[in-house]
UniProtKB/TrEMBL annotation:
The keyword Metal-binding applies. This is Class II fructose-1,6-bisphosphate aldolase. Keywords: Lyase, Metal-binding, Zinc. Its EC number is 4.1.2.13. It comes from Tissierella carlieri. InterPro entries: Aldolase_TIM, Class_II_FBP_aldolase, FBA_II, Fruc_bis_ald_class-2. SUPFAM superfamilies: Aldolase. Its cofactor is Zn(2+).
Length: 283
């Protein structure tokens, strides 16, 4: 069934687990996520980035997500990932998304608060959940110094002010993860997660979670992370599935045959994540 992000994350917060939010760009990815969620009885979030929406088209991606969610035996939210502007958020709400992220992390604090509030006023009026971001979640750079960490990681006092002055449903924080493939092992600032959790009260979101070791993910969840974003690990599984099949079957030209192993590998990866997140049997 199609539900809001808020209701999924409040249950996750209450019961000490995290909901996986997986990026979708086409039908096979949507199917892999839903099948994994149903087979593990997990709640799940399908999320589309602006790039994903541009690639598939808003009508296609929204229709795929809504049909998949409505027919699913588990609760599913349809979420906009890293929405950078008001119009993009409105487009997604108009097409039935039940949750949106407004990423104002490029702005100074006051401006981020004002921009986020503008989105919240409309989104909440129609029952759509809102995720905001504070701090700067990196690209793939690692080995950053402590000074640099303090400059880019989410400041707990700022997080407190942000949550007090907005009515956001969940907050994405920068605590040492980065989008894409890691060059070294990511080092999470666990103390910072705990301090922010104790101050703000809203469920916390971890971006750039592909490639983060299992133990670090479990610890982050125990300290207050309730939504975990995964894209790169699915891209890797998809690409490996396609490459492996084509290498073994160079003459096969059937897209269904080529994409089935990709879907199977993504599904296995998603199920593995759901076990780590503790969302199994929480639907
Ligand atoms: O956070 C970024 C996600 O991996 C989406 O990436 O903008 O290339 O779709 P994308
Ligand atoms: P990864 O691609 O590093 O898993 O990050 C996904 C993400 O944060 C989407 O918002
Ligand atoms: Zn992200």
């Amino acid at each position: 069934m199609l539900v809001t992000g808020r209701e999924l994350l409040l249950d996750a917060q209450k019961n000490g687990y995290a909901v996986g939010a997986f990026n979708v760009n086409n039908m096979e990815i949507v199917q892999a996520i839903i099948e994994a969620a149903e087979e593990t009885n997990s709640p799940v979030i399908l999320q589309a980035s602006q790039g994903g929406i541009k690639y598939a088209g808003i009508e296609y991606i929204a229709s795929l997500g809504k049909i998949a969610a409505r027919n699913a035996k588990v609760p599913v939210a349809l979420h906009l990932d890293h929405g950078t502007d008001f119009d993009q958020v409105m487009l997604c709400i108009r097409h039935g998304f039940t949750s949106v992220m407004i990423d104002g992390s490029r702005f100074a604090l006051d401006e981020n608060i004002a921009y986020t509030n503008k989105v919240i006023e409309v989104a909440h009026a129609v029952g759509v959940s809102v995720e905001a971001e504070l701090g700067k979640i990196g690209g793939t750079e690692d080995h950053i110094t402590v000074d640099e960490r303090d400059a880019t990681f989410t400041d707990p006092e700022e997080a407190l002010r942000f949550v007090k002055e907005t009515n956001i449903d969940f907050l994405a924080i920068a605590v040492g993860t980065a989008h894409g493939v890691y060059k070294g092992e990511p080092k999470l600032d666990f103390d910072r997660i705990k301090v922010i959790r104790d101050k703000v009260g809203v469920p916390l979101v971890l971006h750039g979670s592909s490639g983060v070791p299992e133990e670090a993910l479990r610890k982050a969840i125990s300290l207050g992370i309730c939504k975990i974003n995964i894209d790169t690990d699915l891209r890797i599984a998809f690409a490996e599935g396609v490459k492996h099949f084509i290498k073994a079957n160079p003459d096969n030209i059937d897209p269904r045959k080529i994409l089935t192993p990709a879907k199977t590998r993504m599904k296995e990866k998603i199920k593995e994540k759901m076990h780590i997140f503790g969302s199994v049997n929480k639907a």
